[in-house]
Write a structure and sequence with these properties.
By secondary structure, chain A is of the alpha/beta class. Chain A has helices at 17-28, 40-48, 61-66, 76-86, 107-113, 157-169, 180-203, 216-222, 229-238, 240-262, 266-280, and strands spanning 9-13, 32-36, 54-56, 69-72, 95-98, 119-120, 122-126, 146-150, 174-177. Chain A has a 6-stranded parallel beta sheet.
Chain lengths: 286, 286
Amino acid sequence: MQIINKKLKFLIVGLGLIGGSYARALHKKGFYVSAITDNRQSIDYALSEHIIDDGYDYVNPTAVTEADVIIFALYPQVFVSWIKENASLFKQGTIITDVTGVKGCIVSQIQSLLPDGVEFIAAHPMAGREVYGVQNSDERIFEGANYIVVPTAQNTPEAIEICKDLGRLLGFSRVSELSPEEHDEMIGFVSQLTHCIAVSLMTCCENEHLVSYTGDSFRDLTRIARINENMWSELFMLNKEPLIRQMDIFIKECSLIRDMIATGDTESLKEKMRLSTKRRALFDKK
Amino acid sequence: MQIINKKLKFLIVGLGLIGGSYARALHKKGFYVSAITDNRQSIDYALSEHIIDDGYDYVNPTAVTEADVIIFALYPQVFVSWIKENASLFKQGTIITDVTGVKGCIVSQIQSLLPDGVEFIAAHPMAGREVYGVQNSDERIFEGANYIVVPTAQNTPEAIEICKDLGRLLGFSRVSELSPEEHDEMIGFVSQLTHCIAVSLMTCCENEHLVSYTGDSFRDLTRIARINENMWSELFMLNKEPLIRQMDIFIKECSLIRDMIATGDTESLKEKMRLSTKRRALFDKK
């Protein structure tokens, strides 16, 4: 069932890799898409590439008021500040959604800042790249990827359905639903822990000379070690407790496997490898 | 400079993914390639696909005697046993090389088992896949990959050059040289530690339901978690000390980053991320 109709006007606030990829996907589907971002070059690029219909490097009140669906693709704290400053501009009936990587610390806060009749339904597109900016945006990053809607008790069934419909419209392969708490625990494991591991691998020893010797295993495990330190340190600090919990679980398991090797416990090690192989088979992209 | 001439006859012992990929590469270049492996189906497949010229599912003495260059693509302990049983078959002047993932524990041992006039020069092709068997072999896995020659004081300059030439002939992008000790320390870090991390990520918690939510980071970090438990547990146990050393360094760094997050030390965390980003930029395939 398609709920979003072609007359809806989209506004994207924050035109980087993800905001730009949303804009491309929606514009290609024939929707009117405008954008607000603080970088004039990003707007000029997006206009010249026909990714957006209109764009502003300042908060244009008319663009906000005219939008039916507004997608925020900003860092979490900038997102909260933006809402605090501009909440009065939204028209009644506006649906607001986002792409923010942490939820518990912002969703209720944003919802409490909005006037009645303006609804925020959180979402997290599980897609990204180790490059940045609208210049690198590409709606194909959503193919085969997961899209998670993160509602609270404050959300209406209609807004939840619109948000899910948006995920399908953008081309995500799987659209699902988690509570903010479930989302943050999950993201602490699959995304934040993995980034901590990748960084640890790059920083734990001097390894530049290994370029001449390495195979793909090391390359794969460190692809995400090229990391935007401002965004990721903010995400980690805003999700400190779930992330620490997941890191402790991982470090404990890693130490256990280390001890199996140290004591020559081949059978237990093989058992771990069989479990690992069985579980990992599920995770290939379909 | 090309040292290997078209008249040289190659024998591959162990026709799996890597042995099969060597056979494909060499046969395409016009060399005579025979194979010995314990699986008749692998031989039949390789013959029908024109990957090899001749093949045997038993140790055919003529095939061994006629070979100028013999490549062993067996598990380390099976490799040592094979040499112990069949060393008398090699003709004078035969060059033996391998693809084994650990070196310190086998190279001197193999060299001491060989008759005078038969030289073993060790090598490690840093290429692989998470699938097995000659049916999955593909010489393109060597494109962009590293090939490491691992000589000892016993090796002649001629054999070292032949081995390097083989690496270039197979299509590797970079051919370099390490001592057995340097090799094992390096492999403990870039290959074995990364496999331990990938397995730990899959086994540290129940995570099958995360298929619906995960992004590419988790997929990338666990690609190698589909692991052949017999081969990898053998490799880990044969390289126990370097691997444990590398695991301890990694676990310590991971714990340090964990503590930075726990104490809110954003500046130190960003410093780690900047170092990580700078180093990782070197590792993209050229």
